[in-house]
């Protein structure tokens, strides 16, 4: 039996004097499996909350999966999505009636309030206005990160949430992943003693970088959001969350080094489909990535179900000839840094460093946390705790769970667990059910804006909340 299958089949419950998160199995001496089910107890809800999804792209679809799997807790009854293919697909999945289907977010709010909450999973530059309107009309909100493209808008949403006494859950989903929950729990219980510093690496993975931040929706910071927020506000947030002390100062460096026109190989063309002489040997070939390997093709928004692979291939190639996803990575109008480092000082002299790197063959966060009495080392697949006093090492492995085709339910299990907490918060009208209420998630956004200010102005910046 391979390791993954073993993790799926373990069912022995173990106790622990220090660890309270549910542990479901032991596969070797000092190696334990962490269940994806959190230790917290959920209260029964009287009826399912009703939700309108604004933006039926990747993230809206992921969050909608929870409703599809748990109709007694959450029902999606409305939808706003300008892309007809996405609108039709999402509406069919959730049986949304015609009168509750809209093309734009503005149309949703022309109607009197007809649901409990809204999911806002639109592009970054379309978070602020629909969120403010939703709060004004009395909706609770599940808001995709980043909260908004500017610090001023982020703070305005926080103030509106307070003014209207509505719930805003920010999709900082890593706070809900069993791996990071275990990390925070160990630190809070004093396993490593007084925390001194954190080193955190986010390897974007080179093809993910090319897809999302060179060719994709977030390729230009001026029209979307700086990459430190678009990609790594998760990471700033998780660093702040596990340290559990206020941030004070930040400094950042980084630039766009490689995906530039002067680095385009001789013989390259504006598109990979234009007869590029080096396409077959280019590691960033759109033809290889989308057509040959069929990676990330859900982002192309073309109907691929029910047709042959040959027909699929034709549709993919046509899309590459007309969209940014087929353009040469060296000849885009991108400006996002492809390597970015930032150092942060927290209260009581705790320091942290975050490195966001495009040029890796792998993804998955790597974290090292150093304390006076022990340390933690992990990569989201395993978390190893070493006790300095005894020299003993203990390894924790999050249980592998797949949900409706989303490996590990997304973000190490955090996606679905976050939505579950949001359902509880709305049903009980209790924002304390959330780990990522906007009142606590705002700090990591301020950190991100100050990091970008530091990078662009070449100076250390104070963080003021």
UniProtKB/TrEMBL annotation:
SUPFAM superfamilies assigned: Glyceraldehyde-3-phosphate dehydrogenase-like, C-terminal domain, NAD(P)-binding Rossmann-fold domains
InterPro entries per the UniProt record, alphabetical: Gfo/Idh/MocA-like_OxRdtase_C (IPR004104), Gfo/Idh/MocA-like_OxRdtase_N (IPR000683), Gfo/Idh/MocA_Oxidoreductases (IPR051450), NAD(P)-bd_dom_sf (IPR036291)
Gfo/Idh/MocA-like oxidoreductase C-terminal domain mapped to chain residues: 184-381
Signal peptide positions on this chain: none
Gene Ontology molecular function terms on file: nucleotide binding
Domain Gfo/Idh/MocA-like oxidoreductase N-terminal: from-to ranges: 50-171
Pfam families (alphabetical): GFO_IDH_MocA, GFO_IDH_MocA_C
Coiled-coil ranges per UniProt: none
Protein name, per record: Oxidoreductase family, C-terminal alpha/beta domain
Organism: Pedobacter xixiisoli
């Amino acid at each position: 039996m391979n390791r993954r299958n073993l993790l799926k089949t373990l069912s022995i419950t173990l106790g622990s004097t220090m660890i309270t998160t549910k542990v479901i199995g032991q596969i070797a001496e000092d190696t334990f499996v962490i269940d994806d089910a959190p230790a917290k107890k959920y209260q029964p809800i009287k009826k399912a909350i009703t939700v309108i999804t604004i933006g039926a792209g990747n993230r809206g679809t992921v969050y909608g999966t929870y409703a599809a799997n748990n109709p007694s807790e959450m029902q999606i009854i409305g939808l706003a999505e300008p892309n007809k293919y996405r609108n039709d697909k999402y509406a069919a999945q959730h049986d949304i009636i015609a009168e509750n289907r809209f093309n734009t977010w503005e149309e949703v709010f022309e109607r009197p309030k007809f649901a409990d909450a809204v999911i806002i999973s639109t592009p970054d530059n379309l978070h602020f206005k629909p969120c403010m309107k939703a709060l004004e009309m009395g909706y609770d909100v599940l808001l995709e990160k980043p909260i908004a493209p500017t610090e001023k808008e982020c703070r305005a949403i926080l103030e509106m949430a307070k003014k209207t006494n509505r719930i805003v859950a920010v999709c900082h989903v890593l706070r809900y992943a069993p791996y990071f929950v275990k990390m925070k729990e160990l630190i809070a219980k004093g396993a490593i003693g007084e925390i001194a510093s954190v080193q955190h690496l986010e390897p974007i993975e080179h093809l993910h970088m090319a897809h999302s931040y060179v060719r994709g929706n977030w390729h230009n910071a001026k029209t979307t959001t700086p990459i430190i927020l678009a990609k790594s506000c998760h990471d700033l947030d998780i660093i702040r969350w596990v340290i559990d002390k206020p941030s004070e100062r930040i400094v950042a460096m980084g630039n766009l080094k490689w995906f530039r026109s002067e680095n385009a190989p001789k013989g390259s063309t504006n598109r990979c489909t234009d007869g590029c002489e080096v396409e077959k040997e280019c590691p960033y070939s759109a033809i290889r990535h989308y057509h040959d390997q069929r990676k990330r093709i859900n982002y192309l928004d073309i109907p691929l179900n029910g047709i042959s692979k040959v027909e699929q291939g034709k549709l993919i190639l046509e899309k590459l000839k007309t969209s940014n996803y087929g353009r040469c990575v060296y000849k885009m109008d991108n400006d996002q840094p492809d390597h970015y480092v930032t150092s942060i000082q927290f209260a009581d002299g705790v320091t942290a460093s975050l490195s966001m790197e495009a040029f890796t063959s792998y993804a998955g966060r790597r974290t090292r946390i150093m304390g006076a009495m022990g340390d933690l080392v992990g990569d989201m697949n395993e978390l190893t705790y070493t006790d300095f006093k005894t020299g003993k090492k203990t390894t924790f492995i999050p249980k592998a769970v797949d949900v409706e085709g989303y490996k590990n339910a997304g973000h190490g299990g955090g996606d679905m667990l976050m939505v579950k907490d949001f359902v509880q918060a709305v049903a009980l009208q209790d924002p304390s059910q959330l780990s990522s209420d906007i009142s606590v998630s705002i700090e990591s956004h301020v950190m991100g804006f100050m990091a970008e200010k530091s990078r662009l102005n070449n100076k250390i910046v104070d963080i003021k909340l």
